[in-house]
């Protein structure tokens, strides 16, 4: 089976040299490595919001340079470390992001379901303006899940959550992705989460497992 993503000789800004790697379809792959090793940049290279200075990235066997990047980003959704929500209700944030994504927004009941997957049991007309960092992170994750991507890429998705809540959220996300056949790629500083939820672990600058 062709991997979802594969790299060959990939270099970023002539400074970060990536090992040749591949991401298995339908699995949960965690990416580990020291600070500055290029983990976050790798996810941006995967969805073409960054470009390598040399080498290639392949998505489902096709060179990213030959693909429509807008279509790619609809299929491979990246929820980065910087959480941005509009100073509006949760429901309107879902609608705005889906408008950008050019996809139909879920209704209030569906939104509640995505929020519950991310450990949030709040009315959809709640304002995002006064939420804590952890609440905002979970709403942001719920929006990413609602895009129903083929590939969901999460960069430090539980950084604002305590240990028990982080495990609960990651458990729900992985279960959801597994049930939908969604490929999950995660960067996490939490070694315990990696040990529990990774089907595969890629060490940037090290060996893969």
Can you walk me through this structure?
This protein has 209 residues and is α/β, with parallel strands linked by helices. The protein has one domain (5-203): Rossmann fold, CATH 3.40.50.300. Helix content is 36%, strand content 21%. It contains seven helices and ten strands. Strands 1, 2, 3, 5 and 6 form a five-stranded antiparallel beta sheet that branches. Strands 7-8-9-4-10 form a five-stranded parallel beta sheet, with helices on both faces. Strand 8 (151-155), helix 6 (163-180) and strand 9 (183-187) form a beta-alpha-beta unit. The longest helix is centred in the last third of the chain and has 18 residues, at 163-180. The two termini are 18 Å apart. The model has no long low-confidence stretch (mean pLDDT 94).
């Amino acid at each position: 089976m062709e991997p979802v993503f594969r790299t060959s000789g990939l270099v970023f800004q002539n400074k970060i040299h990536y090992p040749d790697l591949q991401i298995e379809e339908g699995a949960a792959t965690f990416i580990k490595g020291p600070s500055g090793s290029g983990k976050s940049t790798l996810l941006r290279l995967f969805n073409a919001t960054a470009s390598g200075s040399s080498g290639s990235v392949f998505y489902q066997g096709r060179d990213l340079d030959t693909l429509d990047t807008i279509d790619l980003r609809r299929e491979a959704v990246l929820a980065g470390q910087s959480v941005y929500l509009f100073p509006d209700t949760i429901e309107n944030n879902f609608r705005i992001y889906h408008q950008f994504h050019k996809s139909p927004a879920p209704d209030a009941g569906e939104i509640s379901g995505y929020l519950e997957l991310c450990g949030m049991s709040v009315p959809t007309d709640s304002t995002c303006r006064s939420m804590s960092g952890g609440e905002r992170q979970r709403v942001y994750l719920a929006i990413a899940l609602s895009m129903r991507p083929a590939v969901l890429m999460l960069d430090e998705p539980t950084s604002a959550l305590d240990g028990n809540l982080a495990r609960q959220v990651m458990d729900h996300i992985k279960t959801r992705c597994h049930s939908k056949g969604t490929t999950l790629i995660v960067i996490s500083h939490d070694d315990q989460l990696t040990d529990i939820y990774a089907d595969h672990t890629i060490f940037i600058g090290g060996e893969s497992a």
